[in-house]
Backbone:
């Protein structure tokens, strides 16, 4: 069946689709969904920015180098590059001018018409024509000639000014068709890679070949080129993560394998240890295949880390099996705590379904199914495959055994120290910060960071910008919203609230806005205004020698019937690079603007985002928008988990106190761990806050096993804590060697995950070993030694009344509370308490009583409590009954003794109580001693033949309710 499961499960699991989209980790929500859509439809971080620099002013050398670089990239890397920006062809300037001229009304606003109106004055026309005449007779006249006759008033220049708003600042100029800084020492080029930054495998080859080209050009030139982009960070992160994991985990697992082999003395144990976890993961992936058909690769990656919890189940079984080769005993001891641990942990993971994050929901299902499956596989398979040492004496103790043998709760200094840390944690645990800046989880190599800073200084605001994206169901809606945004940005720039901005809002207009602009043109150029302009132009130009027909093309422009244009008409002007601003997809389109602050103003960004269809893509703002209320959601998650786990614990234990004692260490662990994090400045982030679920699960496992260990010791009176603590120590060891080893990683994300895990795991085990066991010691073991019932809530609220004083029900049953026999003991006492009370009346103070067969010791316990001045010796030859009786708190009383051997001297015992029919050999010895010493015999079972007592001169003094009391006559 196992082989069949592996084959069938492996087939379906191998067909599941892995989704590598990191945004699946982001919580859902109206704003987050829009942000995810925007990022899917735009590219902000994939572009590579090249800075070609010279120590001296040398624009000629800069442009020459840029030409060589561009040619090399086009020839050698065409499959890795979609576009190179930074070179403006000669015809580009004329192309832009003609485009604006042919669609002039679309580029003019109300302020432009005020300017045009001032230029229509006679003296203004005269001044403009005289200036143009001087340009015509200059050496550059052949260039300006065509512009003068088409537009003598330079109205087109007013439209061209809108195109200047497409550049972020004025720190650049055009030299030999390239973008050069004004100090002529730097030249910028922009490259759009074919593959997004997440495609590290292809980009690694691309960057490697690109570096060779750059290196060859730099070696043969005084001019040097440097570049940076999101691609470089993605590759560096991928390499570092791979390197860190390979190094740390290879060392950790090597040490772990050696330790496991030495501890269990079996070479196949490490393989057997991981088998249930692997089968559990296979079961989870197979289930996800049928439920969804696809799964987030990120959730599987995190889930693989969280599967460290499922290793615990195998460790516990192996450790118990090593110390006791009896399979029946093994199942009796570990089945319940393992199933409890797996179900409570699964419930905690399933609470991730309450979060609005697709990847975290996948993680919840994957982890929950994995841990439950792993626990079942561990219970079934390990006893099949593991061969424990049959001879206990051959099991050699090691340092783990010696450490597990310690009873840490008995060390006062240790208990005091942990309590002190806990009280300190109460003051600090609320002060742990949540770092919303996802970028700080990136690994940033110093050389790349230095290059980035250098290019940022060169490019100025061209690199250090904030994006504002206008979006809509279609491009016209997106353009319309962007036009409104443009007016707001213009106003903010004029009032000094922002430094500068770049937007196509003044260039690319929606259909409605185009119609509005064309109507404004027609309304402005009335017939009288056009006639007046013609007359003034003719009069002023004639004096300078211009012909009357010189400006006919301009007159035609004024009379032209303009029409709106389509987006493709804008995009045909290649030098506008509108594709950098516009993205059009079916059902969702975006238009991007950029703005620069003197100092980032989050309040202003939020104000702009309040407008319909506008969203900000600022690094910090985007992180906040992405994560939304993730921190508060995780607080709710912890609350939901605690409630759900508490309900499961109540279901298993069926006792409020035990459930609370199991859950309390989790709360203490949480407070201490958060306090330590706050004191040492360790922050939560999107990754390590997820790992906190892992800590919660591990801590819960430790608590459940310690609770069961303490209950077993309390019930049997035999040491059980050692075995449980040994398996927990192995769990801690595997966790610290596995995920804890990542603390030596260089990648910030891995470090943050590891640090939180180490703090959480160490805190969880210390709290379980010290505080939880100390609480059990105070509430159970110490009270047992003091002949008191264990603590219970019912004892607080049940005040002793006359009925309690008569029957001592709570006092008697307190000896069996929290034990497996409690229900049977309660039933027996409830049915027989009247009989027991009657029996106690036949005992006088100071008498010694011999009892035979106690049945859990309920009757002796009751009688010893009721007759405190009398002494009771109980002979019980049934081992299981004797164990239970000897582990009652009353068994520590001076007037009660349970024994498997007869008393050495029967002379002091005048009363004999027979509660059950004895076996033949005991019956013979009993008759002999009763004949010699008994003064009174009380028989509580009709099965015992008693006529021989009458023959020995005993008379019946009481016969009722299956109670026979015989008294010897004088």
Residues:
């Amino acid at each position: 069946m196992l082989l069949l499961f592996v084959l069938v499960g492996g087939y379906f699991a191998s067909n599941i689709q892995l989704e590598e989209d990191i945004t699946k980790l982001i919580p859902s929500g109206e704003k987050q969904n829009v942000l995810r859509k925007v990022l899917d439809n735009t590219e902000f971080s994939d572009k590579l920015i090249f800075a070609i620099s010279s120590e001296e002013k040398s624009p000629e050398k800069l442009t020459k180098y840029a030409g060589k670089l561009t040619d090399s990239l086009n020839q050698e890397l065409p499959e890795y590059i979609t576009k190179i920006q930074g070179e403006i062809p000669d015809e580009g300037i004329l192309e832009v001018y003609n485009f604006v001229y042919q669609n002039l009304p679309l580029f003019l606003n109300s302020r432009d018409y005020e300017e045009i109106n001032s230029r229509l004055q006679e003296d203004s026309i005269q001044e403009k024509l005289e200036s143009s005449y001087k340009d015509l007779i200059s050496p550059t006249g052949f260039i300006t000639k065509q512009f003068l006759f088409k537009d003598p008033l330079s109205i087109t220049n007013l439209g061209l000014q809108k195109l200047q708003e497409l550049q972020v600042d004025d720190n650049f100029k055009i030299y030999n068709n390239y973008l050069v800084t004004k100090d002529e020492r730097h030249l910028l080029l922009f490259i759009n890679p074919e593959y997004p930054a997440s495609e590290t495998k292809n980009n690694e080859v691309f960057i490697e070949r690109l570096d060779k080209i750059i290196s060859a050009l730099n070696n043969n030139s005084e001019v040097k080129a440097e570049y940076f982009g999101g691609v470089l960070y993605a590759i560096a992160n991928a390499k570092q993560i791979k390197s860190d994991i390979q190094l740390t985990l290879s060392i950790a697992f090597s040490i772990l394998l050696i330790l496991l082999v030495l501890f269990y003395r079996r070479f196949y144990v490490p393989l057997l240890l991981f088998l249930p976890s692997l089968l559990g993961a296979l079961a989870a992936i197979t289930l996800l295949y049928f439920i969804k058909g696809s799964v987030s690769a990120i959730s599987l990656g995190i889930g693989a880390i969280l599967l460290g919890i499922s290793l615990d189940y195998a460790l516990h079984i192996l450790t118990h099996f090593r110390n006791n080769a009896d399979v029946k005993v093994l199942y009796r001891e570990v089945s319940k705590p393992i199933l409890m641990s797996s179900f409570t942990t699964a419930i905690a993971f399933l609470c991730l379904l309450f979060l609005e994050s697709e990847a975290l929901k996948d993680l919840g299902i994957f982890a929950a199914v994995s841990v439950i499956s792993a626990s079942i596989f561990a219970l079934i398979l390990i006893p099949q495959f593991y061969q424990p040492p049959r001879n206990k004496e051959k099991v050699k103790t090691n340092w783990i055994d010696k450490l597990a043998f310690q009873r840490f709760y008995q060390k006062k200094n240790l208990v005091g120290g942990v309590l002190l840390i806990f009280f300190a944690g109460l003051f600090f645990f609320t002060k742990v910060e949540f770092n919303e800046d996802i970028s700080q989880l990136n690994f940033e190599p110093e050389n790349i960071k230095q290059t980035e800073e250098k290019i940022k200084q060169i490019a100025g605001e061209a690199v250090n910008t904030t994006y504002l994206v206008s979006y809509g169901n279609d491009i016209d809606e997106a353009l319309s919203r962007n036009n409104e945004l443009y007016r707001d940005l213009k106003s903010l720039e004029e009032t000094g609230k922002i430094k500068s901005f770049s937007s196509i809002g003044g260039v690319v207009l929606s259909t409605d806005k185009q119609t509005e602009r064309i109507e404004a043109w027609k309304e402005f150029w009335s017939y009288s205004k056009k006639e007046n302009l013609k007359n003034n132009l003719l009069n002023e130009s004639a004096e300078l020698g211009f012909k009357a027909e010189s400006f006919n093309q301009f007159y035609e422009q004024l009379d032209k019937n303009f029409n709106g244009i389509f987006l493709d008409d804008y995009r045909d002007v290649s030098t506008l690079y509108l594709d950098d601003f516009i993205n059009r997809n079916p059902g969702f389109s975006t238009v991007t603007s950029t703005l620069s602050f003197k100092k980032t103003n989050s309040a202003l960004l939020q104000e702009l985002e309040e407008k319909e269809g506008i969203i900000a893509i600022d690094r910090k703002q985007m992180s906040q928008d992405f994560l939304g209320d993730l921190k508060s959601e995780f607080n709710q998650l912890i609350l939901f988990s605690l409630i759900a786990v508490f309900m499961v614990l109540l279901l298993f234990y069926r006792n409020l106190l035990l459930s609370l004692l199991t859950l309390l260490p989790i709360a203490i662990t949480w407070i201490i761990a958060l306090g330590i994090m706050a004191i040492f400045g360790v922050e939560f982030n999107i990754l390590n806050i997820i790992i906190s679920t892992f800590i919660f699960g591990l801590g819960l496992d430790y608590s459940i096993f310690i609770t069961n260990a303490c209950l077993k010791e309390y019930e049997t009176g035999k040491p059980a804590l050692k075995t449980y603590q040994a398996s927990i120590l192995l769990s801690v060891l595997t966790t610290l060697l596995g995920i804890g080893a990542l603390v030596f990683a260089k990648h910030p994300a891995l470090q943050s995950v590891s640090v939180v895990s180490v703090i959480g795991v160490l805190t969880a085990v210390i709290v379980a070993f010290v505080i939880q066991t100390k609480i059990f010691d105070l509430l159970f073991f110490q009270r047992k030694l003091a002949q008191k019932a264990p603590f219970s809530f019912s004892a607080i609220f049940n005040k002793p009344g006359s009925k309690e004083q008569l029957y001592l029900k709570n006092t008697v049953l307190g000896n069996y509370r929290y034990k497996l026999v409690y229900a049977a003991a309660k039933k027996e006492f409830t049915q027989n308490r009247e009989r027991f009370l009657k029996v106690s009346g036949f005992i006088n103070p100071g008498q010694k009583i011999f009892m035979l067969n106690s049945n859990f010791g309920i009757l002796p316990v009751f009688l010893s409590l009721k007759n405190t001045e009398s002494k009771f010796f109980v002979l019980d030859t049934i081992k299981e009954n004797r164990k239970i009786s000897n582990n009652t708190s009353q068994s520590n009383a001076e007037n009660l003794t349970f024994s498997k051997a007869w008393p050495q001297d029967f002379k002091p015992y005048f009363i004999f109580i027979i509660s059950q029919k004895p076996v033949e050999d005991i019956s013979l010895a009993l008759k002999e001693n009763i004949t010699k010493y008994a003064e009174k015999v009380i028989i509580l079972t009709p099965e015992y033949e008693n006529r021989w007592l009458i023959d020995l001169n005993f008379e019946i003094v009481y016969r009722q309710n299956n109670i026979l009391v015989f008294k010897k006559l004088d």
Observations:
- The two ends are 77 Å apart (CA to CA).
